[in-house]
Amino acid sequence: MLNRHCLRILTFVTALTCGTSLAEVPAQALYITYCAVCHGSDRLGGTGPALLPQNLSRLRASMAKEVIADGRPLTQMPGFDEQLDEEAIAALTEFIYQPPTAAPDWSLEQIQASHTVHHPEGTLGDRPIFEADLMNLFVVVEQGDHHATLLDGDSFEPIHRFKTRYALHGGPKYSRDGRYVYFASRDGWISKFDIYNLKTVAEVRVGINTRNAAVSFNDKYVAVGNYLPHTLVLLHASDLSPLAVLPMIDDEGNSSRVSAVYTAPPRGSFIVALKDMPRILEIPYEPISTTQPVVREIQLDDYLDDFFFDQAYTVVMGASRPEGQVDGNTVSGRVIDLDTGQKLADLAIPGMPHLGSGISWNHGNSTVMATPNLDEGAVSIIDMNSWRVIKTLQTKGPGFFMRSHDKSPYAWVDVFFGPHRDVVHVIDKQSLELVKTLVPAPGQTAAHVEFTRDGRYALLSIWEIDGALIVYDAHTLEEIKRIPMSKPSGKYNVYNKTHYEAGTSH
After folding, report:
1. How many CB atoms lie within 10 A of CB 158?
2. Which fold has domain 106-136+152-299?
3. 305 with 262: CB under 8 angstroms?
4. How far apart, in whole angstroms, are the C-alpha atoms of residue 262 and residue 289?
5. What pTM does this model have?
6. Comparing C-alpha atoms, which of 353, 309, 266 is closest to residue 502?
């Protein structure tokens, strides 16, 4: 008996043999013939990424048509313009942007089946095979061709460049000693890379559309949040073997996407943000078991997303659905005490603050937090005692990333969206004024600054296929060096990330 896959191919071949045009062939048959071998017959991915609306959210349909026709440079994706006409390509594009008839699942059994250990613990050396300050290394994610580069933060010379999974998302996370780095891809793949030996040691696929991963501060566990399916997955950090899959379902049967998961070292726990439920979850590192991890629920009055934590992890700021007025501004966020679960304040920030990219620093006798804005050209500076906006700086457009360092007098913010995306603003942290505007590569997107361990240098990305890292003197703001890279979307300093430096996002 022919299986469904063979029947579809037979239907396709029969149609062509009988003189039917490509435009009349069902899009699903076209998909099975040309796409399924790499992307899976169910569109959940294989050697190629998943082709579902959630996974394609950052790719416009017009661009998808071009990829189908011309292929994607520096990948295994071929072009089909010689096999498919415009109508067939349009039909395929429409098909992959349609949701499946049944919501796909990704079970514990499927996770276990995907698990691969390339180098078991104890089989690789415990000393790095290169010389460098191990705490001043950067991992640079190059989105342009799905690679990462290990960069020496003293010489600014690449040490090693290696292939990653497709479309990394959420920023890599380090083990406490900086030896291992964990990557999450949008397609649900989690990879563990040994920096000392420059090898990927283990991989596992935990979902279909994944937001990010977090590593416990005791280096025992990895927690991964999924949009699809609606689950939180817990792994052993040692080899990425699965521990548990926690469906995000309430007592009434409602489910929620996991918008992010964070590790909170002072609390010894993971903090979980939910997209579709008015609550926050906290899961202590111990005891985490395969039977029933302890889950504490913090009930909220509103949906919260896009979290910023104070340095002690006692308070979380989250963006909320705009409502009400405070001081003439719409309430667009909440401040929650994580110990009591009580709301401490409403945040009155115009537009849509990007709290997850916020930073904090000491200003006078207080601590302030600053956040860019996703839909307005503004940076809001908030006093973390009163929770009031004490200053709003007008920028040349909406921004996405903001960065500083405890030893730097400046904070940097990009203008990621809009016509001025090639601009980066520099803010004096004591005067709270814009003191310089840089245009490092006219007409090209400039974004995401990260500092060296000592705060002496700031590294900025040019987000283009033929892009670069630009190294600046963090005090004089003079350019020091340009390092060619393929759309370096982010770079992550080992020391800053493992010591939770106030100027970088956690």
Report:
1. 16
2. Methanol Dehydrogenase; Chain A (2.140.10)
3. no
4. 19
5. 0.86
6. 309
